């Protein structure tokens, strides 16, 4: 037991004594006159080797609850088993720890507002695993989706965040910081993006070699690429390369604004009709021109695949057609504001002349990807490296001669090669021990490196089944938000590399445009206040100190 | 002899089908299903159902088992869920790297192990013998990843003699097997991991050889050889060691069978793109076809190499015959 626990234990003992002393007066209720006992709870957390922070925080919460008279069993669970439980038909769980990764398309607020909080998704298999239902919130979540004007949409998104901060459907524990590094003696003009880090889609396009002798950056990854077929690629590591080989109509700028890319612009005809102008004179890597037919075929094929990685982005599309030689018209089932910021920025344009002959597109190996992006595929050796070169005919040629995505088996191996200057950019977040080693720079070994930091827009949280006692009581959820030691998570477990969580916080400050800074978030550890909140809401403690639900 | 081999092969086939059944059941009883790692939770739930159907995972276990065994008899291991390639292709991509590393390490360990082990038995009770036993046991017991990290620190970072990671210099080109594997760049990358793995394997042949030599040395024909006045080294390696080799051959044959599985820790420490890491990933991601395929092939190889060892006995020891 460390010192903090001892202190807490002492404080609670004092409190219990005070409480007991207060009992016994004639006004006190007998146990049988109180409400039901708060049921024994189970929190499904992470295996310590999978996510130590979540594992520890679940244990901590169980300890905290024990001290206010609630039994909670923290049960470390394998990730795939946890998903089975959360998305299974039975919806049988009390609480859990899990996270949403901060992928770039999640900068659009739709995912973190609508998908994970709207009541229509509070059913088996959908993303509102907190089973949170609030009609007032639903109407805002629907409205932001329909509002095509970005300023007006932000207004609605801000209101929605206010409701979440009051209702606390889940308690966010922390967000990680993306601390990464690159060799500043070899490359300059790197772009650092929230949720993406250094190997985002811009860095390879704009980075510049410092000298003419070394012009192909080596990007280190600690995860293998599994698939180069866009219809079958399911990992973010595959996509980080595919999006450089294939082009997209619109790309999100480093400031997360949509910029026309393979398109020269778009026109919102009405709420459900959008015309996109294709840039003229673009070629695929095999020399064939990029035409509206390719764009229409690509979108149509994605729309026809129910299990695709982008299904949630293509589902709102009713039809796609070419209206003239350079214009593609999208018709939506209903207004869908994220259409430009997510759908158009995520779907890669594929060459129809290759894909229409391959049979089942999801089963095609695509061993030699032909795209129209800034980088040409050269070769891929599984478990070793993916090699690309500059596509000279690109409308905005890049300044490096290509890049090599080098696959390592462990972060320790990457660190060694960083020290030996065999690696120029890393594409994953450094672990705290390695950050500290690079900072200490013992003997000047890491003199050539520049550390970069970006806040992640993803977050890890304690999920609560809002459909089940005691979490169906708002006061209980608010109390939970006061029982989480946010400082312990951030300062001790994450070594300070991250940002604070808080009750109901889903769009954090790193997502500058959409985050509402005026909403007060419960983000302070205060068990005394938790007790008061429970007492005010009618919760009582019986003669054995067990917490009982309010009487109806 | 031939009849014996055929009988053994038939038994092997039955065993393999049993092993395949066990492997099938084991993976299906493991918690979680493959869609958990395949489908991002943000994807609509219909997507998950569609995937289950695509891979036939919505069928009853019995139906799945029948299809699996049927395909297996036609030597069809199916497609990996993650790689969009056949299982044999995925294994084939990784196997050369694994086998080259493992066989080099084996060559190192067994050559030194056999010669040194025989020599140690011959010089029993000397200080050099206890040094040898201690040396091999230290590297047998030390965690291989730690030995690997130390080797990298000393030979790559401090001395700069060998590259630290991977099996080729980044960006290396080459298409044919010779260009890819039989060149200086590859050999430079091979030495360190093979050396570390070899140190780990050394104790087995060394100690087996030593023990079996001690037995052989008390046999009459050694006495006879001595009486004939043959040179020590000639008795040691020509007469004694040859007969002491039998148990080492068994161990070596089994080693080759298991070698296809690779040495996960060595592969991780040196970022060696071998099959070992692939096996671990296939299991954690519930990539059933890939995991099943790899394990069945490993079992088949172990069984087959066992048979090879038994047959080799007959050649090494004229007293053994098979009927």
The average pLDDT value of chain B, as a whole number, equals 84
The largest interface is: A-B, 54 and 52 residues
Number of domains of chain A: 3
Name the CATH class of the largest domain in chain A: Alpha Beta
Q: How are the SSEs placed, and which strands pair?
A:
The complex is a heterodimer of chains A (552) and B (323).
Chain A: H1 3-22, E1 41-46, H2 52-67, E2 72-77, H3 79-87, E3 95-100, H4 109-117, H5 135-146, H6 150-167, E4 170-183, E5 187-188, H7 203-206, E6 208-209, E7 218-221, H8 236-245, E8 250-252, E9 258-260, E10 263-270, E11 273-278, H9 292-303, H10 311-314, E12 317-324, E13 327-332, H11 338-346, H12 352-355, E14 375-381, E15 385-390, E16 404-407, H13 411-419, E17 425-426, H14 432-440, E18 449-455, E19 459-464, H15 474-482, H16 486-493, E20 498-503, H17 527-536, E21 540-541, E22 547-548
Parallel strand pairs in A: 1-2, 1-3, 7-16, 7-17
Antiparallel strand pairs in A: 3-19, 4-18, 4-19, 4-20, 5-6, 8-9, 10-11, 11-13, 12-13, 14-15, 15-16, 21-22
Helix pairs in contact in A: 4-5, 5-6, 15-17
Chain B: H1 2-29, H2 35-38, H3 45-54, H4 61-73, H5 87-122, H6 127-141, H7 144-158, H8 177-181, H9 184-201, H10 203-216, H11 220-227, H12 232-259, H13 264-269, H14 275-284, H15 288-316
Features:
heterodimer; A: 552 residues; alpha+beta; Dipeptide-binding Protein, domain 3; D-Maltodextrin-Binding Protein, domain 2; Dipeptide-binding Protein, domain 1; 3 domains; seven-stranded mixed β-sheet; 22 strands; B: 323 residues; mainly alpha; 74% helix; 0% strand
């Amino acid at each position: 037991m460390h010192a903090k626990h001892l202190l807490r234990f002492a404080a609670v003992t004092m409190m219990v004594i005070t409480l007991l002393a207060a009992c016994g007066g004639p006004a006190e209720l007998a146990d049988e006159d109180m409400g039901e006992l708060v049921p024994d709870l189970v929190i499904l957390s992470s295996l310590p080797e999978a996510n130590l922070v979540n594992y520890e925080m679940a244990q901590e919460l169980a300890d905290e609850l024990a001290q206010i008279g609630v039994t909670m069993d923290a049960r470390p669970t394998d990730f795939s088993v946890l998903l089975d439980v959360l998305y299974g038909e039975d919806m049988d769980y009390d609480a859990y720890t899990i996270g949403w990764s901060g992928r770039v398309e999640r900068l659009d607020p739709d995912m973190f507002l609508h998908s994970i909080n709207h009541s229509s998704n509070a059913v088996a298999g959908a993303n509102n695993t907190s089973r949170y239902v609030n009609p007032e919130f639903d109407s805002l979540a629907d409205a932001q989706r329909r509002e095509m004007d970005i300023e007006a949409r932000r207004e609605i998104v801000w209101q929605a965040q206010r409701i979440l901060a009051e209702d606390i459907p889940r308690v966010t524990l922390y967000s990680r910081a993306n601390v990464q590094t690159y060799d500043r003696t070899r490359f300059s003009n790197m772009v650092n993006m929230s949720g993406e880090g250094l190997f985002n889609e811009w860095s390879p396009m704009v980075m510049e070699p410092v000298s003419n002798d070394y012009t192909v950056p080596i990007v280190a990854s600690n995860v293998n690429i599994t698939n180069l077929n866009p219809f079958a690629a399911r990992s973010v590591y595959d996509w980080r390369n595919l999006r450089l080989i294939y082009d997209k109509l619109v790309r999100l700028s480093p400031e997360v604004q949509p910029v026309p890319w393979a398109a020269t612009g778009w026109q919102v005809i009405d709420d459900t009709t959008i015309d996109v102008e294709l840039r003229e004179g673009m070629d695929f890597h095999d020399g064939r021109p990029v035409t509206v037919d390719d764009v229409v075929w690509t979108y149509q094929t994605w729309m026809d695949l129910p299990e695709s990685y982008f299904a949630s982005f293509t589902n709102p599309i009713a039809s796609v057609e070419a209206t003239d030689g350079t214009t593609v018209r999208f018709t939506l089932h209903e207004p869908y504001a994220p259409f430009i910021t997510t759908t158009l920025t995520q779907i890669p344009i594929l060459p129809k002349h290759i894909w229409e002959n391959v049979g089942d597109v999801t089963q095609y190996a695509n061993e030699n990807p032909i795209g129209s992006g800034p980088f040409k595929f050269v070769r891929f050796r599984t478990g070793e490296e993916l090699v690309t070169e500059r596509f000279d005919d690109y409308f905005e040629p890049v300044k490096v001669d290509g890049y090599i995505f080098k696959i390592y088996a462990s972060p320790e191996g990457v660190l060694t090669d960083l020290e030996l200057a065999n690696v120029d950019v890393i594409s994953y977040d450094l672990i705290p021990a390695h950050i500290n080693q690079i900072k200490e720079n013992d003997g000047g070994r890491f003199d050539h490196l520049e550390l970069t930091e970006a806040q992640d827009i993803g977050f890890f949280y304690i999920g609560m089944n809002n459909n089940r006692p005691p979490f169906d009581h708002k006061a209980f959820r608010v109390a939970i938000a006061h029982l989480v030691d946010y400082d312990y998570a951030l300062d001790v477990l994450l070594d300070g590399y991250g940002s604070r969580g808080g009750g109901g916080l889903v769009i954090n400050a790193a997502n500058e445009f959409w985050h509402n800074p005026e909403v007060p978030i419960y983000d302070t550890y205060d068990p005394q206040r938790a007790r008061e909140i429970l007492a005010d809401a009618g919760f009582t403690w019986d003669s054995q100190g067990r917490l009982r639900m309010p009487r109806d | 002899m031939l009849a014996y081999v055929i009988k053994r092969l038939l038994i092997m086939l039955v065993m393999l089908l049993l092993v395949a059944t066990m492997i099938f059941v084991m993976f299906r009883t493991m918690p979680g299903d493959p869609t958990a790692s395949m489908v991002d939770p943000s994807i609509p739930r219909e997507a998950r159902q569609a995937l289950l159907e695509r891979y036939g995972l919505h069928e009853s276990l019995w139906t799945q088992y029948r299809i699996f065994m049927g395909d297996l008899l036609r030597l069809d291991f199916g497609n990996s869920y993650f790689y969009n390639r056949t299982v044999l292709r995925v294994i084939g991509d990784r196997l050369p790297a694994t086998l080259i590393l493992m066989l080099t390490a084996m060559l190192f360990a067994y050559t030194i192990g056999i010669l040194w082990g025989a020599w140690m038995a011959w010089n029993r009770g000397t200080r050099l013998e206890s040094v040898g036993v201690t040396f091999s046991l230290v590297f047998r017991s030390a965690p291989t990843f730690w030995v690997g990290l130390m080797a990298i620190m000393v030979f790559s970072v401090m001395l700069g003699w060998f590259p630290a990671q991977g099996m080729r210099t980044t960006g290396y080109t080459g298409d044919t097997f010779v260009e890819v594997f039989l060149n200086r760049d590859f050999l430079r990358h091979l030495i360190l991991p093979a050396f570390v793995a070899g140190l780990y394997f050394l104790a087995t042949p060394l100690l087996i050889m030593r023990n079996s030599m001690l037995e052989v040395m008390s046999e009459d024909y050694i006495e006879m050889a001595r009486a004939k006045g043959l040179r020590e080294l000639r008795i040691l390696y020509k007469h004694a060691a040859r007969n002491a080799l039998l148990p080492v051959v068994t161990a070596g044959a089994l080693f080759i069978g298991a070698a296809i599985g690779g040495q996960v820790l060595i592969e991780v420490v040196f970022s060696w793109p071998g099959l070992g890491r692939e096996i671990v990933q296939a299991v954690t991601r519930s990539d059933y076809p890939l995991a099943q395929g790899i394990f069945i092939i490993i079992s088949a190889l172990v069984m087959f190499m066992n048979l090879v060892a038994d047959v080799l006995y007959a050649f090494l020891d004229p007293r053994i015959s098979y009927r």
